[in-house]
Design goal:
alpha/beta, globular, 13 helices, 31% helix, 466 residues
């Protein structure tokens, strides 16, 4: 970009979490400079984008992705380069990925490894959360240092014994530390110890198909772990963010805690809003494509998740994007569902699927932007730089055509994975043009971005805490 680069987006409906206004938008040097009543300002610009009949929305903030994640003897199939490019195609301009501490290693080693994977490769901006797998005195000290340098959220697992699992004592210690340093604990809430017993029993009975993955990871064990995490956070005086909530019983636990005035937050994902155990039961091992944890639930849970999004018992929709190819990766679990790598591709589909929720009358347009852009930016300390269209914000802007129709397919998606979780689904609404800090990444459905444009974004602490 030249030292003084100006872009005007004219004639569109600007939608943020709080407003819908017809406005022209002036972008200067990578930031939003001004909004004006259409046609009232004769701004001179290097570039004018006509958004007549379109929405002008903030770029999506996907606060839960796993690029290149090692899992189950293999790696997530999207690199930071392919994954962030696909995100841009889907109207997402910021991801927050998870750096992993391995047991026996420091947080710093994990964080450095993830910086090395991402640096110079991303098409859009990115930040990191830290997965804490090994709570000890050194780890706890490191948490303070990470918060100071802009890694302000830490993920723990009540699931996956022997891999990422933390027991209640370790969780309590990390929560106590975050209560002091301002960090936010993110929890994978499933009772992994009990689930492992059910897995072992199912396999002993010869129940090896993908559908049993959903049957052993019971909704009650998600609800139990959610409840336990809330109580531990309450004891520690710490805030809590529960990731990928899939069961209505878990939503009820969150709602109860929030009604008590606790700083407890919940996230769900598009797969839980649109897919179900019907997909896990697809024949010929096709169900393996839909194996993720928390698992897909019976269809009646979907309405409760949408309701939670409307009532703000759930605040964020992220993807938990963690793709594994069907051929050669998901197939590792043929004959043993417990060996199927857990994860779904979705970083490219989130904004469009949530817009479909608008089309179907499940959420409003502003709520769409709230759960996909503004709240994740606030939750993870990036607002108003990210998540809104306002003077001073980064010019992460999407021109969205609400009338275009598309059919989701692996043939046309840009994620580095050989299937789509939403194959054949008809959607109304599509991303047309995407700017990241004022630079065109998608230009009228053409990729014009580049690896290395995306920069690392340090974050402040959660903006919902007093």
């Amino acid at each position: 970009m030249s030292s003084r680069s100006r872009t005007v987006i004219s004639g569109g409906l600007v939608i943020t979490a709080s407003d819908e206004i017809h406005a022209d938008v002036l972008i200067e040097d990578g930031r939003i400079a001004a909004l004006a009543v259409p046609g009232t300002q004769s701004w001179t610009a290097d570039r004018t984008i006509d958004a007549t009949g379109k929405y002008v929305i903030p770029g999506g903030v996907d606060a839960h992705t796993h690029m290149e994640l090692p899992f189950g003897g293999t790696f997530a199939s999207d690199t930071f380069e392919t994954g962030t490019r696909a995100a841009a195609w889907g109207g997402t301009t910021t991801i927050v990925d998870f750096a992993v501490q391995s047991v026996g290693h420091t947080l710093r080693e994990g964080l450095d490894a993830w910086h090395a994977k991402a640096e110079g490769n991303c098409a859009i901006d990115y930040g990191f959360h830290m997965i804490v797998s090994d709570v000890n005195q050194e780890t706890l000290k490191e948490m303070d240092l990470l918060v100071e340098e802009g890694v302000t959220s830490f993920k723990q697992f009540m699931a996956y014994p022997g891999v990422f699992y933390s027991d209640d004592g370790q969780i309590l210690r990390a929560m106590q530390r975050s209560a002091e340093n301002g960090g936010l604990i993110m929890m994978h809430a499933e009772n992994g110890i009990a689930i492992d017993v059910l897995v072992e029993q199912a396999l002993a009975r010869g129940e090896t198909d993908p559908r049993y993955h959903g049957e052993v990871r019971k909704a009650l064990l998600e609800a139990e772990a959610t409840h336990r995490a809330i109580k531990l956070a309450q004891v520690a005086g710490a805030p809590l963010y529960v990731v990928h909530v899939s069961a209505m019983e878990a939503v009820a636990e969150l709602a109860r805690a929030r009604d008590e005035g606790l700083n407890v937050f919940g996230e769900t994902c598009p797969q839980y809003l649109f897919l179900s155990t019907d997909n896990l039961a697809e024949p010929d091992f096709e169900g393996a494509k839909y194996v993720c944890s928390t698992p897909l639930r019976p269809r009646e849970h979907q309405a409760k998740l949408w309701q939670g999004l409307r009532t703000n018992d759930l605040q964020v929709v992220s993807t938990d994007h963690c793709p594994f190819c069907f051929v050669g990766q998901k197939e590792l679990g043929r004959g043993d569902f417990s060996k199927i790598p857990n994860g779904l591709p979705g970083v490219e589909n989130r904004m469009d699927l949530l817009h479909q929720g608008v089309v179907e009358g499940r959420i409003s347009r502003r709520r769409w932007i709230e759960i996909a852009c503004a709240t994740p930016a606030r939750m993870f300390g990036m607002y108003p730089k990210k998540g809104t269209i306002a003077p001073g914000a980064d010019a992460d802007v999407v021109i969205y055509d609400p009338h275009a129709e598309q059919i989701v397919s692996a043939e046309t998606h840009h994620m580095n994975v050989d299937y789509s979780a939403y194959e054949g689904k008809r959607l109304t609404g599509r991303v047309e043009t995407v700017l990241s800090r004022g630079e065109l990444v998608i230009t009228e459905r053409e990729y014009t971005g580049r690896a290395g444009h995306g920069t690392y974004t340090p974050r402040s602490t959660c903006q919902y805490l007093n």
